[in-house]
Amino acid sequence: MIPARYSASRFPGKLMQDLGGKAVILRTYEATVATNLFSDVFVVTDSSIIYDEIINNGGKAIMSKKEHDCGSDRIAEAVEFMDTDIVINVQGDEPFTDKESLAKLIDVFKEDYDKKIDLASLMVHVTDLEEINNPNTVKVIVDESNFALYFSRSPIPYPREKDSGAKYYKHKGVYAFRKDAILDFYRLPMLPLEASEKIECIRYLEYGKRIKMVETNIQGIEIDTPEDLERAKKVWK
Questions:
Q1: Mean pLDDT, to the nearest integer, of 115-143?
Q2: Mean pLDDT confidence for 100-125
Q3: b or e along 204-214 (b: 16 or more beta carbons within 10 Å of the residue's beta carbon)?
Q4: Angstrom distance (rounded) from CA 181 to CA 110
Q5: Which strands make up the sheet holding 61-63, listed edge to edge?
Q6: What is the C-alpha separation between 184 and 64, in angstroms, rounded?
Q7: Over the stretch 201-230, which tens digit does the pLDDT of each residue have?
Q8: What is the model's pTM?
Q9: By the 8 A CB rule, do 118 and 209 touch?
Q10: Are 95 and 31 spatial neighbours (Cβ–Cβ below 8 Å)?
Q11: What is the pLDDT of residues 24-46, one digit of tens each?
């Protein structure tokens, strides 16, 4: 599932921007389909512009029936009555979505025989101080088994001891959910930590869900600003 809304506070209409002759959202959809990892791929949107872009280019799209504050809610509404066990959320602004990282997420559930993992997500080791301190970069800290302890826009852990050897990980907004977990998210109200950070995966932690983090070394490019789009165009060439 690829949640996609037309409006965006930092870069309105970014998903319909041109990237190598096609809209960003269409590039993302085609890259996801090309992995051949999924039984089906849909763009889920509240925008008739995005819906028509996907449908008119031979893709599959679902129009949301309700207004939603986040992508997880949008996906939950779409899959509620679908016969599926695992749902993957690919962000619409990541046209360089890669097969290797998505396959790692799927493998988490293949090995989870006792069904103790509610969802899985990706993280990338980062060392650039500007990125670590950037509130637009969501950081995650994990335990010894790579289960998420917390997500924040602040640098976590705080570097009081510079030589502690602590690593910083950037959270990539690609998720794999058990269907029950995402439906629980949809039905449960937002709590104070999520409201403060504006990071939706914190809701899972606040309600006791277990998030398995999977490390990847593939950064990709998330198109959040016009500058990101220009960088993506250079890479696409």
A1: 94
A2: 92
A3: bbeeebbbbbb
A4: 17
A5: 2-4, 43-45, 61-63
A6: 18
A7: 999 999 999 999 999 987 778 888 889 899
A8: 0.86
A9: yes
A10: yes
A11: 999 999 999 999 999 999 999 99
Cα separation of 118 and 176, whole Å? 9
Report which secondary-structure segment, H or E, holds 206: helix 202-206
Question: For 139-144, which contacts have Cβ atoms below 8 Å and span 24 or more sequence positions?
Answer: 139/168, 139/169, 139/170, 139/171, 140/169, 140/170, 140/171, 140/213, 141/169, 142/169, 142/213
Exposed/middle/buried for 184, CB within 10 Å: 0-12, 13-18, 19+? middle
pLDDT tens-digit profile of 165-188? 899 999 988 899 999 999 999 999
- Cα–Cα distance measured from residue 178 to residue 57, given in angstroms and rounded to the nearest whole number: 30
DSSP conformation letters of 164-187: S---EEEEEEEEEEEHHHHHHHHH
Whether the CB-CB separation of 80 and 72 falls below 8 Å is answered with no
- Report CA Rg, the chain: 17
- Note if the bond before 135 is cis, omega within 30 degrees: no
The number of CA neighbours under 13 Å toward the Cβ of 213 is: 24
Length of the chain: 237
- For residue 57, which amino acid is it? N
So what's the pLDDT on residue 9? 67
